[in-house]
């Protein structure tokens, strides 16, 4: 019996110098790729606004009950596709596109300082880097204390066994949108191999 697996992938809208956000472009390209007949891909572009993210992230989990949820964001300093291993609760002092920050500077009042994903990001990196696909993947323990880190913390607080965050470099530095989408597809396939035995 075949079960359809729902995978939710989000990108972010424009902010600051990123008038075209590579994360959103990469997610749009991902929609053109076949993730498998048993995978239902849901994509969403999220605004770079703390208040909105606090509502959108929990609603994505509730509405779609995904087997895997991946947030994708752009990092101006990244030179490779970067898998974030954890997210932080405090330190959100950088203003969003509405020039606002969270009232208390944190994601969830009273929440743990950080939440670590139970997905093995190192194993994903190792697998993809061994394929000689021309795309380098690395891990990170600092998602940046901005909307990326913020959204990831909210998702990890929902279910840390099937939430991930991927930072992509800006377009052309060095990857095209198609290459980023290819990298995202490979990451999703690796992560599905980790979560499916636990969820089915």
From TrEMBL:
Any matching Pfam family: Peptidase_C15
SUPFAM superfamilies: Pyrrolidone carboxyl peptidase (pyroglutamate aminopeptidase)
Transmembrane parts of this sequence: none
Keyword Protease belongs to the record: yes
Alphabetical keyword list: Cytoplasm, Hydrolase, Protease, Thiol protease
Annotated InterPro entries: Peptidase_C15 (IPR000816), Peptidase_C15-like (IPR016125), Peptidase_C15-like_sf (IPR036440)
Keyword Transmembrane: no
Family: Belongs to the peptidase C15 family.
Name of this protein: Pyroglutamyl-peptidase 1-like
Protein's organism: Saccoglossus kowalevskii
Gene: LOC100369705
């Amino acid at each position: 019996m075949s079960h359809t697996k729902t995978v939710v992938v989000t990108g972010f809208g424009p902010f600051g110098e990123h008038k075209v956000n590579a994360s959103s472009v990469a997610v749009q390209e991902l929609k053109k790729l076949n993730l498998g007949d048993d995978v239902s891909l849901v994509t969403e572009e999220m605004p770079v606004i703390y208040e909105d993210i606090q509502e959108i992230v929990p609603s994505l989990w509730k509405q779609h009950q995904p087997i895997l949820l991946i947030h994708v964001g752009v990092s101006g300093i990244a030179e490779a596709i970067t898998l974030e291993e954890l997210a932080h609760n405090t330190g959100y002092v950088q203003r969003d596109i509405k020039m606002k920050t969270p009232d208390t500077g944190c994601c969830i009042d009273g929440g743990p300082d950080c939440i670590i994903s139970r997905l093995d990001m190192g194993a994903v990196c190792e697998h993809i880097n061994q394929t000689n696909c021309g795309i380098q993947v690395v891990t990170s323990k600092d998602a940046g204390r901005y909307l990326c880190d913020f959204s990831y913390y909210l998702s990890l607080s929902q279910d840390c066994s099937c939430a991930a965050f991927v930072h992509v470099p800006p377009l052309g530095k060095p990857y095209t949108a198609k290459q980023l989408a290819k990298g995202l597809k490979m990451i999703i396939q690796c992560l599905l191999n980790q979560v499916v035995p636990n969820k089915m």
